[in-house]
Amino acid sequence: MIASLTGRVGHVGLDRLVIEVGGVGMLVHTTPRTAAELRTGQEASVATTLVVREDSLTLFGFGSVAERDMFETVQTVSGVGPRLALAMLSVLTPDEVSAALRGGDLATLTKIPGVGKKSAERLVLELKDKVGMPSAPQGASATSAAAPSGDVRRDQVAEALVGLGWSAKQAGDAVAVVSKSADPDASVAALLRMALRELGR
């Protein structure tokens, strides 16, 4: 198991990173929140988990051990795979997931793309006693990287949202809403965070 990676950030995408470790560029799938906090060229350390499939080895990375642990925990529920677990942590923080599971908050859980009422009920039933109490709040420190402008940015955000499980219409509508109020120079990562908040309403 690869539990963590530390190295120079070679590339930052909306939902993936390349971290250079010992001359090897490791592709790490991550949440938009974690990606937004990093920039190319900086030294970074991410908590990771390796998902092994018959035809692939996929590395997932997170800005905190709590995120990684929640990513692994929710996958113990039947029907929850890495993609859904990543979508869950793209919409909610680990503390928010924990609070929703412990409190049986189905309304919050069903805001996650791919989670319906029955799935939410199953998550609560199987995990409410397995997740701990929320930890102390942590401040987010996102660093905005240079980003394309105009329609290209909106297209990238919509594409990332579809990749996380929302429909093309939901993604397009959310991007349209946030584009009206967003700073014209807002980065792709900033727009994506705003769109995720909009979809989580």
Number of strands: 5
Report the structural category: alpha+beta
- Roughly how many Å apart are the termini? 37 Å
Percent in helix:
40-55%
Please identify the oligomeric state. Answer: single chain
Taken from the alpha-carbon principal axes, the silhouette is globular
Protein name: Holliday junction branch migration complex subunit RuvA
Domain Helix-hairpin-helix DNA-binding motif class: 72-91, 107-126
Subcellular location: Cytoplasm
GO molecular function: ATP binding; four-way junction DNA binding; four-way junction helicase activity
What is this structure, in a nutshell?
The protein has 201 residues and is of the alpha+beta class. Helices cover 44% and strands 19% of the residues.
Structural summary, described in words:
Belongs to the RuvA family. GO terms for molecular function: ATP binding; four-way junction DNA binding; four-way junction helicase activity. Its main location: cytoplasm. It is built from 9 helices and 5 strands; from the N terminus they run βββαββαααααααα. The chain folds into 3 domains: 4-62, OB fold (Dihydrolipoamide Acetyltransferase, E2P) (Beta Barrel), CATH 2.40.50; 70-127, 5' to 3' exonuclease, C-terminal subdomain (DNA polymerase, domain 1); 151-199, Orthogonal Bundle (Helicase, Ruva Protein, domain 3). The chain is globular and about 45 Å long. The chain is of the alpha+beta class. Strands 3-2-1-4-5 form a 5-stranded antiparallel β-sheet. The relative contact order is 0.13.
